[in-house]
Amino acid sequence: MENELKHNTDSMKAANDPGIYKLIIFGVIVCMVGVFARFAFDSWILSLVCWIVLFIGVFICIKGVFKILDA
């Protein structure tokens, strides 16, 4: 099998780094907390804080995706 793909390039090593996936999972958990809190409380101040937490989680996830893409 001479035509096997070699996954030893720098971009593949970066894409397979477990730290990136841990970052994305952390971002998803932060997003879930923001969404749950958004619908659990009925105050405009808490709602605003929950939206901010949600967008922080989205930013963390996007940061992890761009690390995978090495952009």
From TrEMBL:
Organism whose genome encodes this protein: Pedobacter changchengzhani
Lineage top rank: taxon: Bacteria
Protein name: DUF2207 domain-containing protein
Membrane spanning residue stretches: 20-39, 45-66
Assigned keywords, A-Z: Membrane, Transmembrane, Transmembrane helix
Record carries keyword Membrane: yes
